[in-house]
Amino acid sequence: MLQSKTEIEVRYVETDQMGIVHHSNYVVWCELGRTHLIQKLGFTYTELEETGIVSPVINIDLRYRFPVHYGDAPTLYTWIESYDGVRVVYGYSIVNNKGEQCADGTSSHVCVKKDTFRPISIKKHLPEWHQVYEKNKKKT
To answer: Among 4, 49, 129, 134, which residue's CB has the most CB atoms within a 10 Å radius?
Structure first.
């Protein structure tokens, strides 16, 4: 299973009055990790969109376990949790510099035609992506 590793710099604007990262920023971080993973797999969202296909989030599930504070430097790990030829589930783990897991979760995605927003089969329409995702998904 291939995973990407993204170092996060916590910006002051991402925190609340207590100096704790606001929960909404974790979703942004997950997108950053997902983008890095896709690049590590040899693809880009830009190339996907140039073919008239986009990949919306259809579900996101994050568990907040330990607060991240301003000044922390957490690491985000991202991988393909599952893939079935149509739906991709990415996994995430955010760990602080003390090794404590701060958050973990998943996001689910499908690919759709940009003009109609109708779902497509990744296996059929993006065979290169399909092969790489099959090879690099988490083994169960």
So the answer is: 129
Whole-angstrom Cα distance, residue 52 to residue 116?
A: 10
Structural domain total, the chain: 1
Q: Region 5-9: what's the mean pLDDT?
A: 97
Respond yes or no: is residue 72 known to be catalytic. no
Tens digits of per-residue pLDDT, 16-58? 999 999 999 999 999 999 999 999 999 999 999 999 999 999 9
Q: Are 10 and 70 in contact (CB under 8 A)?
A: yes
Q: Tens digits of per-residue pLDDT, 93-128?
A: 999 999 999 999 999 999 999 999 999 999 999 999
How are beta strands 75-83 and 87-95 bridged, if at all? Answer: antiparallel
| CATH number, domain containing residue 48 | 3.10.129.10
CA angle 79, 83, 89 (to 5 degrees): 55
Range of the domain at 101: 3-136
